Amino acid sequence: MNQAPELEMRSPQSEPVPVVETQNLGKFYRTGFWMNQKIESLRSCTLTLYRGETFGLLGQNGAGKTTLFKLLLGLVRPTSGRASLLGKPIGDRPVKQRVGYLPENPYFYDHLTGWEFLEFAAELFQIPRGVSRRRIPELLDLVGLAKSAAVKKQMRQYSKGMLQRIGMAQALINDPELVFLDEPMSGLDPMGRYQIREIILSLKDQGKTIFFNSHVLSDVEKICDRVGILVRGELICAGSLDELLGTAATYAVTGKGGDRETLENWLENFDRERDSWQGHLTGDPQAFLEHLQADGGQLISMNLSRLTLEEFFMRQLRDRGITSSS
Ligand SMILES: Nc1ncnc2c1ncn2[C@@H]1O[C@H](COP(=O)(O)OP(=O)(O)OP(=O)(O)O)[C@@H](O)[C@H]1O
Ligand SMILES: [Mg+2]
User: How far apart are CA 296 and CA 318, in angstroms?
Assistant: First the structure.
């Protein structure tokens, strides 16, 4: 288990409260005509999310993000390990009442209006009519969907952005403590993404715990307290941005001369124009300088710069020999 985040989340007033806990959670599917092929979708995942935090899960297509959500929501059964939500083993019925979920590809009843759809979702949670009549307009307001559109328009007339908003409202209909959002920004234009980000931040202000995944790394970087990276079913790291990016210090280096091959080996994004060059150094600066001097090169500048989450993510993939989304 990752110890560092626990230290970081601890405040003088209160101990962090675990809301999602997984212990060596794993899932494989059997496929093929004879069911003799095994797809390991999630491998021995150990992770804790604390009350009130926003946790972003990153991973390429097929990395296992949705599988982890489905396991936690009790939609598929684990093949190994265990997990709990809000202190109860996964699958616990009363806990489901306290959890919200925006699926990756939500299915909407096209012929219903948004309002009818939210009423339907409220009924599934057995929310009294009086309560849902109050809550639905509040939610429409929160997700920025005009009441007139929700009342009058059938969902087949909705744009992708409107559907995503109504999906978000559906995920919040039971005023959940813990919300799972599977690709909430998918397919949205920059304004739509910005608005979903704002909604997530307002949920965070309400003290809700948010577990979401996204391909849009800049969004994740802007709103998450902690981030986890899944690579081919394996959670390879989890931590705050400071913890993850801080450990991957990089130097923006410029110089002149030296041996091209050595420089290319040492520097990422190496670029040379005539005798001058620039690049990013991630290795030991002292050792780099010694090599440079030995090759007759000259250092002009070396500035510490932090990686972006995207660079960090790409580096994790590269270090594992993954170059394309496969
Ligand atoms: N029901 C299933 N039967 C067989 N294999 C499955 C099933 N569900 C998922 N998988 C496989 O498990 C792996 C992980 O899939 P998952 O949907 O969790 O990935 P993901 O990270 O959510 O990807 P994406 O970013 O494309 O949504 C993939 O190889 C996928 O093909
Ligand atoms: Mg998915």
Answer: 30
